[in-house]
Design a protein that fits this description.
Helix content: 25-40%
Strand content: 5-15%
Shape: globular
Number of strands: 2
Largest sheet: 2 strands, parallel
Length: about 120
């Protein structure tokens, strides 16, 4: 998901324009940014770290009413603790949503209904 040259609030609310700050699953993280929700992120999220940009994109996705979420290495720039928080938030927010996760991290297996290995790992299925 792209991060656009606007505030964190505007980026996240692209998922659901009427969302309140309390609806956002990354609220605590965002409030720690220099200007909180009003922090300008720059082109492609240039003022954010890779992990921060991923969290903003995931927060936007969680607010959307999409029936399918496709997460491609969605937590690759996060440490293990933050990845666990994101994984838990995805599980909680995606109650009636098909979530497809493409990842190299085995930690996502615990919350999966089905795991499919591709490439050299295909023999493990």
């Amino acid at each position: 998901m792209d991060i656009f040259a606007m505030s964190v609030r505007e980026n996240i609310r692209l998922g659901r324009p009427d969302a309140s700050d309390e609806d956002v699953c990354a609220d605590a993280f965002i409030r720690m940014l220099p200007d909180g929700y009003d922090t300008r992120v720059g082109d492609g999220g240039a003022s954010l770290s890779g992990g921060q940009a991923q969290r903003v994109a995931l927060a936007r996705m969680a607010l959307s009413n999409a029936e399918i979420w496709l997460l491609d290495e969605a937590t690759s720039a996060l440490d293990a603790e933050m990845e666990n928080l994101v994984r838990t938030a995805v599980q909680s927010a995606a109650k009636d949503t098909l979530v497809i996760v493409s990842t190299h991290k085995d930690s996502w297996h615990a919350c999966a209904d089905r795991v499919i290995y591709l490439g050299e790992e295909a023999a493990r299925t």
